[in-house]
Each structure stands twice: as structure tokens, then as C-alpha cells.
């Protein structure tokens, strides 16, 4: 009985991991692009401000 009880828990965890992996794949690229754009813009602004002063 113990083996039968353990098996469905493992499968549900695997399904949950697959769902989270799919969600991460969909979300990550957008976040990366936004962060890169923000970081590059702030870096350039800081450089120009320091050069002008």
C-alpha cells in the first residue's frame, strides 16, 4: 500500500513542475528584454550626465 500511495504524489509533482517550467519559459524572455532595455538606458544616461558635468 505504501508504494501505491507514493506514486501519485510523484506524478503530480512532475506535472506541477512541467506547468511551472512552461510558465517560466513564457515569462522569462519578456522580463529579460525589459530589464536589458532599462539597464542600458540608465547606464547611458549616467555616462552622459557625468561627461557633461
Low-confidence stretches: none
Enumerate how many helices there are, as a single number. Answer: 1
Q: What class would the helix/strand composition place it in?
A: mainly alpha
Helix content, binned percent: over 70%
**Gap between N and C termini:** 76 Å
Could you describe the largest sheet, including whether it forms a barrel? none
Mean pLDDT: 63
Strand content: under 5%
Secondary structure: number of strands:
0
Shape: rod-shaped
Radius of gyration: 23 Å
Order of helices and strands: H
Task: Please give a structural write-up.
This protein has 53 residues and is mainly alpha-helical. The chain has a domain at 20-53. Helices cover 96% and strands 0% of the residues. The mean pLDDT is 63.
Q: What is the topological layout?
A:
Layout: H1 2-52
Brief descriptors of the model:
single chain; mainly alpha; 1 helix
Short description:
The chain is mostly helical and 53 residues long. Helix content is 96%, strand content 0%.
Amino acid at each position: 500500500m505504501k508504494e501505491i500511495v507514493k506514486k501519485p504524489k510523484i506524478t503530480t509533482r512532475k506535472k506541477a513542475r512541467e506547468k511551472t517550467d512552461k510558465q517560466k519559459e513564457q515569462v522569462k524572455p519578456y522580463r529579460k528584454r525589459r530589464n536589458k532595455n532599462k539597464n542600458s538606458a540608465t547606464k547611458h544616461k549616467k555616462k552622459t550626465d557625468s561627461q557633461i558635468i
